[in-house]
## 1
Amino acid sequence: MRKIFPFVFFLFLAVPLVAGAQQGGLVPCGPGTGKPVCELCDLFQLIANLVRFILVVLVPPVATLFFIFGGVTFYTAMGDADKIAKGKKILTSVVVGIVIIYTAHYLVSMILGALGVVDVQWPDIIIC
């Protein structure tokens, strides 16, 4: 039960985000978008919209939750060396993960922008 609770809790947090994303227009074509016919370019724009959704909507709250979890673990260690190490490891992993995610996005966007493939204006990537 203890292992499934965080997953269910995160699922309930993520459902409103996904529902809001559908209203924001992840899919650039189709009924109600003003562009009834989808092309190959729209597939790549959909992928870019999904990446933007992950970077802007999902990563910050998940990172915040893990920062809180790591801080609480560190704070409640009460001198236990294992718990202190666990809290430090969680906090370090969150920082390293955030740096990897945003650096990878920046490098790929910079390379594609330099090649003239896409127009990058953080956090939007405009392909079509």
## 2
Amino acid sequence: MRFTVVWDDEALNQLAVIWLDADDRAAVTSAQAAIDAELAMAPASKGTSVSEGLRRLVKSPLQVLFEVADADRLVRVTAVRAE
């Protein structure tokens, strides 16, 4: 089953700043799409554990922090930064 991937407002704001400052905006856009696609399927097994309930996934040139709510089939991206 697929998970729904949502980005917190703060993460979206961070992504917008990264995109505006990027030399290769297409790479940022592609990485964001890859993150969404990857986290939609079995997200608890993606990336590495940072702390209880928080994981990190790197898709160059981005890295995101995310939480998984299995019961709701929801992934929440809480932060993003340039790698």
## 3
Amino acid sequence: MRIVQATLEHLDLLTPLFVKYREFYGELPFPDSSKAFLEKRLRRKESVIYLALADEEDKLLGFCQLYPSYSSLALKRVWILNDIYVAEDARRQLVADRLLQTAKNMAKETNAVRMRVSTSLDNEVAHKVYESIGFTVDEQFKNYTLPISKD
């Protein structure tokens, strides 16, 4: 398995797995909109996407997408691990571990103060994977969200 940073050339390879990721979380597939969304992120350099590819072919095993943010208190960059997904037939092959380790290395190289991730309360598999590479549950801050409606 090799990990590469996605470019626009990977868009057709990435989109179908991104669609499966969205469906996993209960969203409608919208393949054209999904592709356009990813294309914008890559063109504008608004995110960093890592791909896990099978060694013998360009088969996509999984991906993760990180967005930059900043900490005013630490005066440094923060990376938000927004998306991570492993293809069903590639699970239990340490794909997520390799993607997360690559993301962690990138965060160190960019002098980030931390990485953040959120996941479903009942996603025990993800909890174990995140904790295995050093993520800890935030006991200091309570996080809130404010849905913005079109009304």
